[in-house]
Amino acid sequence: MSLNLTDSVMDQLLDALVEKGWFEWPKAVSEALCQQLLAEAEFHDQQGQLQTAGVGRGDIHQLNHDIRRDKIRWLDGSSNAQQTYLKQMADLQYQLNRALFLGLFEYESHFAIYKPGDFYKKHLDSFRGRANRMVTTVLYLNPHWQPDWGGELVIYNEDSSAQLTSVIPKIGTMMIFMSEQIPHEVLPTQQPRVSIAGWFRCNTSIAGVIDPAK
Q: Would you state the pLDDT for residue 127?
């Protein structure tokens, strides 16, 4: 399986990231692979293998249910489905680096499961000069999602003064945006909602330590 990354889609993606900082990509990942990943996420949930998501990294990491209420499990390549998806993201990383010279160094990602009533309030994934997440990806794994079920991803302009788009989390759709540039939030969901959130990162080595914790 490979990403639906035709020359036309790649041109649209690059133009969108440069001009407005975000791109909505319907049918980016095959439904078959999404279903495999969804089954994994649901299994981990049933086995109680998810962790409560926090806010911030390193010394400032904290749990705050007023800001976010999803639960997560990091992808580690332990299944064929994960390996396939991570290979696809490695291919995308190569294409972004070749075209935009971003210096993307690695990719990290986790399943994110939102139960009814869960949300994630408006935030940035990275702050200029303070972290190393450069490009965010969000892949949705939800078949038969209905518009009145909520759970939309809302994208805002850089100063958060205007809503730019609202994305229904339906299976195979991927959102890609600049981590330091695009404020966004997940609206409360009415049904269980599953996605894979990921970040292409740059290398911020300090004193010989690769990518020290922020």
A: 74
